[in-house]
């Protein structure tokens, strides 16, 4: 049945009448879908799960539909029943769908290999169609459209080639600039940003020289670059953006009190610094005191109700730049400044298709032509019934695509940075002629852009995965429980997200502040530069990251500086993999959660409820422990989710094998279990079983009993667990290799990647000594 339907749709004789129109419409919609998925898909979905397979499917369907449709549109002879109209419509359709095919990849950087042979031949074929038998009224807009398309493809290739050469050169230039001592003053102030000379823009306009013996590329900021201005004025740094009068109407204290305008430039400067992690360039400023002060004293400001709004605002915009660097054409488009030429070509294309929209109105809407004889030797008639309507619809799609493409670039964070930098340049140059007018116009544009684009891409929601309830056969959703238990990665398709609450933010960022405050001084290391990190200092930083158990369960004596021994031992101290440790503590935390609910008279089924959305209890032990409970359980479930995605320092294949084995252990212990209240009793038997006690599930059950017996006060227990999970998540974020974070830049973003940025800028580079840029084997199909 389905085969006969496909054959009917494929025929193009008089019996099916609308076959050509159908294929033109279908091809247009497929090309539009490919453009939509390729351009905005990576911003909202993770291509490792959805976007990449959909793009491959659309690429295949586009190939066959385009080839077939172009093959239909070649009448061999004219007939007196309207063949001229059919030929005109064929030329219009051919040019439009060929142009859409060649520009459907706008979401990714244009490279030479992406101009495939099919695109080239299709463009030449459409030009040949225009060369023969084209009416003058149609020839003008069609040739104009084809010419603009050719110019745009040529410009794409030129700009891509230049950007491809400039990006690694500028990254190396920024890296060498940070190797010098003049990038940050020792007494730099995070409050006013004075002394922070991080590069925002203008490094490509500086004179350079290579200096031995390290052959570093250094900028000469003293020579004259452009006539009438020095290179120093062309280089925009963070301190220059902040160094404005308080009365300034855009960047002054009164106009930009919360720093939203200036923070976009700070995010862009930090993006350029973080980009070095993907090129294996040294992070020379990691040990500088001003580096960690920038994070602890400026970014980690606790806002109203513990929002930490500035830290998340800066990192989400920085992540949007990193996302665009790897998964969009923005770095290519903005490599030479604001994309005026590209937008001009888009405007010409839009004007040309509008002209064509008017011109096709004179073509008869129906007609018949005789097609060339096929393999059977019989001539077939091509009949058009709604040609003008189809043409207008295709033109509307092309016009919308052009407008959306222009909007993607104009209304972006990159445009905001360009506007602010242009404003700062105007202030530095202090032009008298037209200076005030230009600054006023720039100020208005900046305010409009910041009102339209208020934030980055992250919605501050994190995915939760509870291993105990996922493996429970008798849960409220048994089908989903079995599905999750067999394929834990399916959680990426059916996630359970919760809003990042103030309790969670406070636990995370207070732990981060405590880590930063305890960073050892690098003075006296084996380098001529006292702020250059040494191997011994890096080991101390790694040890500080791994002290999350001590920070949570060891109490320091303020009187003599001694420490009292913890009431429990770290059950995971001898385990090698981070996934093992996550699952042991996750099981223990889940069992403690069930016990607390039982003691408070709450149903144990609430262990899988959305805690942040629940109303806090007003009395009892649960009320005192509630803020810590929300933080600990939320972070525990999030770390378990990271294990399901292999977004941990372990090898991805190892993480998934361990997770599968532990799920098997828990499912085996919960056979016949019908309610969440039975979980604690079933798993508690593993803690007392000598052989089962050595498994991950048994170790988690035994650790839960030790925690409950050691800490009678619920508030103290959950406060320590909240500090533990916050410290563990910081350790996982800093120690996960950059290549893994790169894969997860797609989509809405992950909390662990935001933490990775903040820790990197504070000097915590993790313990990954090799393979920083190598893909994990589990991520090979997701890149």
TrEMBL record:
Mind telling me which InterPro entries this protein's record contains?
A: DUF4220, DUF594
Q: Which Pfam families match?
A: DUF4220, DUF594
**DUF4220 domain span:** 58-469
Domain of life from the UniProt record: Eukaryota
**Identification of the protein by name:** DUF4220 domain-containing protein
Source organism of the structure: Panicum hallii var. hallii
**Origin organism lineage:** Eukaryota, Viridiplantae, Streptophyta, Embryophyta, Tracheophyta
